[in-house]
Amino acid sequence: MADRKMDHAAAEMLEEPFIRIPYELMRRNHRSAQRQVEKDFMFLQATLKTLAKLNDNGHPKDLKVESKEESLQRLRAASERIKGLKRKIQGLQPSVTIASPLRARLHGLSQLQDMNTVSDSDLSWLTMCATRSWKEQRLDRYMTDYLLRTGRLSAAASYAKERNLEDQVDIALFQECAKIGSALADNHSCSEALAWCGENRGTLKKTKNYLEFSLRLQEYIELCRKKQQTEALAYAQKYLATWQETHMREIEQAMSLLFFGQGTNVGIYRRMYDPARWQSLCQQFQTTFNGIYGIPSQPVLSLTASAGMSSLKLAACATGLPHESADGVDVVMEPAGAEGDSDNSRAIVLPIPSLAASPPIHNSSTTTDASIPSTNDASHLHAHPEHPQRNVDCPTCAPYVAVLAKDVPYSHHTNSSIVCRISGEVIGDENYALAFPNGYVYSHRALSQMAKETVGGIVTCPRTLEQCAFDQLRRVYIL
């Protein structure tokens, strides 16, 4: 029963991004509300101070004499501002009846803690069912997060609604990120990203992030591209001059850009006019966005899958990569949901390097796979007797998973396990190995069963279709 209990520390490590994101959102909303409340409070304070001076012993010389109607108008405006300030303060109070995303996710972690504290003797059927349910919900969250991270926003929203996970995932946050990224990459507009930088200026300054300068520099470059030198110079004096302490060299180069047109052959200025800078800005924004909210560089689903694949991957799994080339080829795969999801209709080009063929032991399988040559084709097997065939039951050999597995390290095995190609059983002392005259090795149990089902005890090598009597097989000893 002990092996059914989850590793609480490892689970918490994977859950950390899902807890930190709503926490950072609450912090940002609190800072924004605090600035607005302070602004309203200062306005009210100034208004009331002015009215108090007007009513104290005549009118001070520095104040314009107001009519009674104007004073009443000031009071009405101050009263409305006070009511609005009261509503904002009440909106900041936590609600007991409405569960926040952070509260819902902390509740899920508390359930995990309760399951982990159950002793082995008390690990009942209900507890195991609760653990299984929690794991299924976690997988649903990981899948939704993967869809969000890969730009499939509508598919993620539909899946989250179907699985009742709206409070467990951050759809609105990724929609904001996608909107700003699209404005940069597709519309060549920095307005949305600059507004986002204004909302997070304190955090950007604390982390010494210079995304705002890059955006300001790009807007300056666009003015130079349009040959609006006067506007570009005024823009530089207003927005770029404040960055002299940290970006003096870039500012000097930007000033020289006023004298070079878009068709210049000078390398440094040609690169500044390069439209590819918009893609770099988009990537810089996404990196900054992920860093502020504690979002991992890769989807959590990919991280967990990579950890699992590294425990299964062998050198023999390399042949599972979906390519056949002597010098490598790019495999183009349409992303899932490309036809039905308009958020991401671009194909993903994955460079797959050519890898050497692997021995047939790990790649053996009795399951039919349409993507590999059939063992019933004798001419193909005789023409290529060493042609590897991957094991379709191995996750790291699956064509689409192999793309992810190609960068993970190989698993460490002190003792190898030899699996029979016919039965899929492990070859050992009780189920020892037998070799055909051609050298191919299979398990005794599988070959003896084959001999019983044929006339005269004839066995057939499924690899080469070579036949021989069962007595002609030789035992193989593994040291």
Quick recap of the structure?
This protein has 479 residues and is mainly alpha-helical. Helices cover 53% and strands 5% of the residues. The longest helix is centred in the first third of the chain and has 47 residues.
Describe this structure in words.
With 479 residues, the chain is mainly alpha-helical. The protein has four domains: 2-123; 171-293, no CATH class; 320-360 and 375-405, no CATH class; 415-479, Zinc/RING finger domain, C3HC4 (zinc finger) (Herpes Virus-1, 2-Layer Sandwich). The chain is 53% helix and 5% strand. The chain has 18 helices and seven strands. It has helices at 8-54, 68-92, 101-116, 125-149, 153-162, 171-185, 191-199, 201-206, 211-225, 229-240, 244-256, 267-272, 277-293, 300-310, 360-363, 378-383, 399-405, 444-452; strands at 329-333, 348-352, 433-435, 441-443, 458-460, 467-469, 474-476. The strands form three sheets. The protein has a three-stranded antiparallel sheet. It has a two-stranded antiparallel ribbon with strand order 1-2. Strand 3 (433-435) and strand 4 form a beta hairpin. The longest helix is centred in the first third of the chain and has 47 residues, at 8-54. The chain is elongated. The model is unreliable at 320-385 (pLDDT under 50).
